Amino acid sequence: MWDYSDKVREHFFDPKNSGPLEGANGVGDVGSIKCGDALRLMLKVEPETEVILDAHFQTFGCGSAIASSSALTEIIKGMTLDDALKVSNQDIADYLDGLPPEKMHCSVMGREALQAAVANYRGEVWTDDHEEGALICKCFAIDAVMIEDTVRANSLTTVEEVTNYTKAGGGCSSCHEAIEEILEKVAQEWEAEGKAAPTAAPAPAAEAKPAAKPQLTTYQRMRKIEEVVESIRPTLIKDGGDIEIVEVSGKDIYVNLKGACAGCMMEQATLGGVQQKLIEALGEFIRLLPAKLLTEIH
Questions:
Q1: Residue 139 bears catalytic tag
Q2: Is residue 64 helix, strand or coil?
């Protein structure tokens, strides 16, 4: 299980500035529900000074994604747009007293949403699909330009670090060779520029990763999914809602939120929290998706 700081827990269980923002004049959408994470960042900007008067978010994703989005809105309120654009994904992680390496991609998503929202306010075109970049990771729709930009911005040197920051390579792993080629390209450019390529410091022995858990059988996996969902249902029922499993298809788990949870302002946060608990219980990446997406697939 990942070790989360108290500040991450605080911004997950009590997110700041969550929900629609009335009068927003800058909106940025990044990610995709089908890929597991999606974020909408809304800004209310004072036109004459370009100061961010207020910022809200709506996030579909894990606890770290919700916490990172909450932190971002707190950081940028009161800043000018130009100053806000200087906020890096590392600034977001530092504000939260750190994120697990496997969750750094959540802070990167926040940074992209900010760029998109500022561009939207200024009437500029911003896209996260980098049409000029080849698609590298088909599992999560991550292209070469995003990987290269993230490698440069965060001085990444390994495929594992790229996966932690972008999710690329975290699915079927068929793109690892292409990621290594990008890492080699950037390393050569650093060398040509006379910059020493960063060297990843070895992790302390106390932080060594535990041995991999034995793989669950199909039956055990299904039972574990049911156990996690059943453990969450009483809390939802107490608030007038409920959740039911509709279908499990590989790493995609489709559910229905019912009662007060259906269409609730915090629906995405609820799904993200349940997804996080399932990931930790199963020891693998899964996507918790609304059952209505099944009709789009079939």
A1: no
A2: helix
